[in-house]
Fold this protein.
Amino acid sequence: MWNLNKVCSVFVLLIILSACKEASKQSEVISKKDTLAIASDVENVIVDTLQIPSAEKKQIPPLASLPDTTFVRLADYSNDFVYEMKYATDDNFLKAQVYDCGECYVRAVTAKGLIKANTAFMEKGYRIKFFDCYRPHDVQKKMWKIVPNPTYVANPAKGSIHNKGGAVDITLTTLDGTELDMGTAFDFFGRKARHAYTDLPQEVLDNRKLLKTTMESFGFGAITSEWWHYNYKPTLNYKVANFTWDCD
Ligand SMILES: [Zn+2]
């Protein structure tokens, strides 16, 4: 005969067994769910990895596909130039930083000319280094206020070729970035910066000549008062611009 205690014990045992079975089922369900979640995470990681580059990559159209007048960031089309954008610092004749950040923008046609000239320089062991490229018209007005002398600063009423995206202020460096001696610093306003000034060491005269003859052979024109300034001739009649580049 089963006594009450025995019946109770069996009953409790059955409840425990049943509970265990249920827990095991649930655990199986959770485990399946987890596996699905992990699989789905893995899937997401793969998809994300594929998506991130195309979502973040800046679309840079080929230079050859652009109209000549389009403004381009030169660094998007060549890694071979050197930059020291002087107006993004206060180390310039204005003694003021007039650009939020240093970028070299020029018209597409100017970029093509610069890349060709730089290729020729690199074959001889040099690179073009930029001090200034496109310059917004408002910055031209600031410069004119400080130096209202057309020998050194273009009158903003007419505009500078810099405002048109066709002028660059440059020097040469060796391939490792060492500047060549050009006799004066950039933006030295005096006779010594003129092409006609020859009371300079032969090395300086040779460096200026190398810069000038090569730039001229690729369609750039020098001006008499500044050894560093070159105008790309096809842009001389372009319109003055006043956009400012992003500094992200
Ligand atoms: Zn210039």
User: Anything to note?
Assistant: The beta strands are 71-73, 82-83, 105-107, 126-132, 167-174, 220-222, 229-232. Helices lie at 4-56, 108-123, 137-146, 202-217. The pocket of zinc ion is lined by residues 132, 162, 167, 169, 229 (CB under 6 Å).
